[in-house]
Design goal:
CATH class: Alpha Beta
Helix content: 25-40%
Strand content: 5-15%
Radius of gyration: 16 Å
Largest sheet: 2 strands, antiparallel
Low-confidence stretches: none
Order of helices and strands: HEEH
Number of strands: 2
Strand order of the largest sheet: 1-2
Distance between the termini: 37 Å
Mean pLDDT: 92
Number of domains: 1
CATH architecture: 2-Layer Sandwich
């Protein structure tokens, strides 16, 4: 996620959309939290829960949902950037 993006809005959107993925359990609910920070911005941990029989279907559908939901909502793509200050004397 881009450091310029509204992380709280992105987290709420992902919880909602991933909760609609077939075979994702309602209890426990989908978890979306900030895992760490890097030069691009916050890295989100996204954890939907499902029965083992549906793991790969939920895994791939969740990844597609993340991409489609954030893109449709206009969130910027993560882009590495660095601010450089040049002092001339």
């Amino acid at each position: 996620m881009s450091g310029a993006a509204d992380h709280a809005a992105a987290m709420a959107l992902l919880k909602e959309k991933i909760g609609l993925v077939p075979n994702v359990l309602a209890t426990p609910p989908v978890e979306v939290e900030i895992l760490e920070f890097n030069l691009v911005g916050p890295v989100l941990a996204v954890r939907p829960y499902c029965h083992n029989d549906h793991y790969w279907q939920v895994y791939f559908d969740t990844n597609r949902t993340i991409r489609e939901a954030l893109g449709a909502a206009g969130f910027p793509a993560p882009m590495p950037a660095q601010v450089v200050f040049v002092n001339q004397q």
